[in-house]
Design brief:
Its EC number is 6.4.-.-. This protein has 20 helices and 14 strands. It is an alpha+beta fold and 579 residues long. Among the domains are: 158 residues, no CATH class; 103 residues, Phosphohistidine domain (Glucose Oxidase, domain 1), CATH 3.50.30.10.
Length: 579
Amino acid sequence: MDVTKPWVVDNELSIRWPVYTRANAAEVSGTVATPLFWTMIGGAAIEAQWQRALAEFGAFDVGEFRPDAIDIQGLVHGYVYLNLSHARTFGARMPGATPDLMDRTYLGDVKAPSYVPHPDDDRPEFAKRILATIDRVMAETSRPDLEEHRQLAEKLRAERPDLGTLRDDELLARQRTIMRQTYAPTFLRTHLRMIYEGSVVAGALDQALIPLGDPTLAVTLTSGLGSIASAAPNEAMWTLSRMIRESITLTAEFDFGPVELEMRLRDSGAPEARAFMTGFDDLLYRFGSRSTQEWEANAKTWESFPAIPLGMIDRMRLQPEEKNPAAQGRRLRAERDQAMAHVRTQLVDEPDQLRALEAAVRSVVLYSTAREQSKTNTVRVLHEARLPMVELGRRYAALGHFRRPDDIVMFREGELDGLIADPGGFADLVAERWAWFDELSEVEPPFIIETGNVPPITTWVRRKDPVIDVAVAGDVLTGLPACSGVATGVARVINDPEDAGDLEPGEVLVAPLTDPGWTPIFTSAEAVVVNVGSAMSHAAIVSRELGIPCVLGVKNATKRIVDGTVVTVDGAAGTVTVH
């Protein structure tokens, strides 16, 4: 397989904005992008909405972007990148920000090619528009649009037809209707705009806290918020885990092992098993859209792969009662109220500073909650669009056209009409693309690239290559503080939530990334360390909600920290000490 040529859906990189980074992109797209993902969900499908979201925010005009091209994102040998030069332009136009600040926000202490100003970067008219957005965002006290979207997503789920009865062309039509009429213009664009609105309130809080000289306050004042949509599955799973602990019958079934566990529970005539499965089915109905790689076309959603959430519940049943997410939330809210009372005492003679701080905290609370609700809404609608493709893949596998159901993701969205017309005529193409995909999956993409200067893929580090700088006793790895607290335990490196069964009580979860499909595992961990992430990332918000000490952005943590090593995680300092 010639992996030196562009992947089947790679796009041409921008000359106007030439520097790209895996920062943030790796958090939501850690693997090679499948053709169906990039043409149905990412790529051009998302680019147009992203451009409009930025224009609505006031930072860009849609006309600045290349027509019928992709500028904000990049796909290089199948790996998703975000445009760092574009973010630098945003920083140049944003009052109170700079291109260097955007570098620090995205990259931390990682060095990038020097910023080269462009004549169109610093334009006063954009600053005026952005200031108007900032004023609006900081004045908001609610986001009723997200509640409307939540109800729309629930309605779409409730009205889902029996996909098994639809014709092939009807399945494709359903996917396209949801993606083009509901998902992209309403849910996706709102979520993309909210990412930038959330950065406004996070920056306001950082500025308001400077006079107090305590960097840990930002975490404390934004913990235990309540009503975090992406933390809700943890609470539902916790309830189910307590049912197991209180039942000899359920405990015996889970002790017997995960193989065919769901079937055994459904076939059981025990009242406790029936009650448990009623609760579990409700969990799948409400949160079945959750998964890792949530934006991918072949995401292993909980609804399609119920063994994954069952495994998470199995780990939770081993936890003591003090790990109860509701109890943790009450503790964190008490600590937040106490910290805020202390701040008010400190600023009693500085009423303007106090008002600014209280306003910033209110905005961060609002947007942390709103951002997670927005993503939950968006993913739930996306799930309804993906399921027809899942059904089509299963159908063609059963008929012998596919070797496996997820062969469907090796097609570009525009090739699906041809597939339906001749479902048995693409076996060689699918096999070639899977072989190509597997080869690309063996390499680690560079963290930063430049248009016209992308290192040959033959020089990229291979995932199986040994890491030279493995952490040893006495080493202190640094990252971004996400949730305060100090915890010591055995490091358990887990690269896929399906391996959650390896996590034992008292251990520290070390993970490559943590989108919502990971977070129920947080409750079963003493602390969390992640390769990537940022202060307003999903992992940060959920760890603060659950009170789990967490450090994000620890580069190569899953490779540098040897499985079984004893470590101490200091979530406030952003450090991981190796013992």
